[in-house]
Amino acid sequence: MENYNQTSTDFILLGLFPPSRIGLFLFILIVLIFLMALIGNLSMILLIFLDTHLHTPMYFLLSQLSFIDLNYISTIVPKMASDFLHGNKSISFTGCGIQSFFFTTLAVVEALLLTSMAYDRCIAICFPLHYLIRMSKRVCVLMITGSWIIGSINACAHTVYVLHIPYCPSRVINHFFCDVPAMVTLACTDTWVYEGTVFLSATIFLVFPLIGISCSYGRVLLAVYHMKSAEGKKKAYLTCSTHLTVVTFYYAPFVYTYLRPRSLRSPTEDKVLAVFYTILTPMLNPIIYSLRNKEVMGALTRVSQRICSVKM
Predict the structure, then answer these.
(1) Which of 79, 257, 263, 290 has the fewest CB atoms within 10 Å of its CB?
(2) Alpha-carbon dihedral 20, 21, 25, 30, rounded to 10 degrees
(3) pLDDT tens digit string along 124-179?
(4) Transmembrane ranges (predicted)?
């Protein structure tokens, strides 16, 4: 075990990479995933902005998802990579609070945004004649703004608490970012009440949205089942399967991590699960939405042709 200076107020992040060849391999892999996520999400945002065929509520919400994923992975990976390269695992008390705030905000915003996207598909397929009214530009803006406000308030409450509790001399966080539950384990005071609020918060922002998403897609699948058009069924099933794939990748590890009692959790397992929702999901989302979506592929072709014609 490495010896760390405990007189500093800084925290020590043990990180994800072991000091070995395996650690170097994982570092290179994570950096490549980060670059893929960066390129993929930026491309999705630009594509939706440039192609007028994608100026619809569904793609407006998708562009926001890409924006969130872009910030999500950028909040964690650059610091983690920098620590590995420089051999410095410390993060300042304030820096840890800032990272925790942004992570918690983005986690809640993405959960609420995925719920909004499920509602959008439900209205589009089950109530197509009401779609333009129920999913107007104003409604979309309110959904996104509300998600950011709720996420920020929730994150602010958690961050203020973890920055004001007394910590023991050992400030070694067994994680690769400043995750609130991992920080609370270092507290030199009884935190069972706060851990209850974390559970309540996870229930409100993970379980309830997941129930809403399940109900929306349950309604959608029922409506699709009664469709007479084979082509319409195929398109609806493809759209829904894409959304459900993204939801599963994001929610499953999150729910499993945050709704378990501390006694059943292990730092190693938490870190492995965190890789899914902090690193892999931001990389996979643009791939899933582009490769399985004919409209996105069509828009990519149109924009590419337009760029080529301008160059010529």
Answers:
(1) 263
(2) 10
(3) 988 989 999 999 999 999 999 999 999 999 999 999 999 988 988 888 999 999 99
(4) 22-50, 57-77, 97-119, 139-161, 199-224, 236-252, 272-291
Residues 6+ apart with CB under 8 A from 13: 80, 83, 89, 90, 91, 173, 175, 176, 177, 178
C-alpha dist (Å) from residue 195 to 99, 169, 200, 255 = 20, 21, 9, 15
Give the pLDDT score at 292. 66
Give CA separation, 156 vs 34, 52, 102, 202, 285, in Å: 27, 37, 9, 15, 27
Q: Is residue 4 predicted with pLDDT exceeding 60? A: no
CA 294/CA 117 separation, integer angstroms: 18
Map out the domains of the chain as residue ranges: 16-303
| Strand-pair partners of 167 | 187
CB atoms within 10 A of CB 192: 7
CB atoms within 10 A of CB 13: 25
The closest of 66, 142, 33, 156 to 103, measured between CA atoms, is 156
Q: Which two tokens stand for residue 89?
A: 């695992």
E strands, the chain, where? 11-13, 90-91, 172-173
Contact 106, 281 (CB under 8 A): no
Mean pLDDT score, 38-52: 92
| Count of C-beta atoms within a 10 Å radius of residue 225 | 10
- DSSP state for residue 204 in the 8-state scheme: I
pTM listed for this prediction: 0.90
Question: Rounded to whole angstroms, how far apart are CA atoms 161 and 181?
Answer: 12
What is the per-residue pLDDT for 282?
93
Q: Are 177 and 98 in contact (CB under 8 A)?
A: no
Burial status of residue 291 (CB atoms within 10 A of its CB: 0-12, 13-18, 19 or more): exposed
Q: Which fold has domain 16-303?
A: Rhopdopsin 7-helix transmembrane proteins (1.20.1070)
Under a CB-based contact definition with an 8 Å cutoff, are residues 212 and 115 in contact? yes
